[in-house]
């Protein structure tokens, strides 16, 4: 895995773990996959050669990156005919991402 992508995943993993330790409300936790589980999921997706993914519950995007990388075979741009849709139905996550977008 590329060093910059590994660093991004490490940062998201640490931020999620820190957030979850501080957040008493279960519905507001990031609940990221464990790195080993994310890697296994990535291998399963890659071996399935799927061209479309739907992820419901994106939290901070940790699993989304693992899934996208699995469908892209290491590329960071979606090749033709491949789609990934990720979203979150939880209103708190939507507000969380809106605030992060406005801060950046």
Describe the protein.
The protein is mainly α and 104 residues long. The chain has one domain. 56% of the residues lie in helices and 10% in strands. The chain contains four helices and two strands. It has helices at 3-22, 35-48, 62-72, 91-103, and strands at residues 52-56, 83-87. Strands 1-2 form a two-stranded parallel sheet. Strand 1, helix 3 and strand 2 form a beta-alpha-beta unit. Helix 2 (35-48) packs parallel to helix 3. The protein starts with a helix and ends with a helix. Residues 74-79 have low confidence and may be disordered.
Quick gist of this model?
This protein has 104 residues and is mostly helical. It is 56% helix and 10% strand. The chain has one domain (3-103).
In percent terms, what proportion of residues is strand?
5-15%
For the terminal residues, how far apart are their CA atoms?
26 Å
Q: Helix content range of the residues, please? A: 55-70%
- Order of strands, main sheet, comes to 1-2
Mean residue pLDDT:
80
Q: What order do the helices and strands follow?
A: HHEHEH
The coarse overall form would be globular
Computed over alpha carbons, the radius of gyration is: 14 Å
Instruction: Provide a count of the helices.
Output: 4
Task: Name the poorly predicted regions.
Answer: 74-79
Q: How many domains in all?
A: 1
Structural class: mainly alpha
Largest sheet features = 2 strands, parallel
Query: Count the strands?
Result: 2
């Amino acid at each position: 895995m590329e060093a910059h992508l590994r660093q991004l995943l490490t940062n998201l993993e640490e931020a999620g773990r820190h957030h979850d330790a501080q957040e008493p409300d279960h519905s507001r936790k990031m609940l990221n996959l464990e790195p080993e589980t994310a890697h296994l999921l990535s291998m399963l997706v890659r071996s399935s050669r799927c061209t479309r993914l739907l992820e419901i519950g994106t939290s901070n995007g940790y699993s989304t990156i693992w899934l996208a990388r699995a469908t892209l075979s290491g590329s960071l741009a979606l090749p033709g005919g491949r789609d990934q849709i990720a979203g979150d139905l939880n209103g708190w996550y939507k507000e969380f991402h809106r605030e992060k977008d406005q801060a950046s």
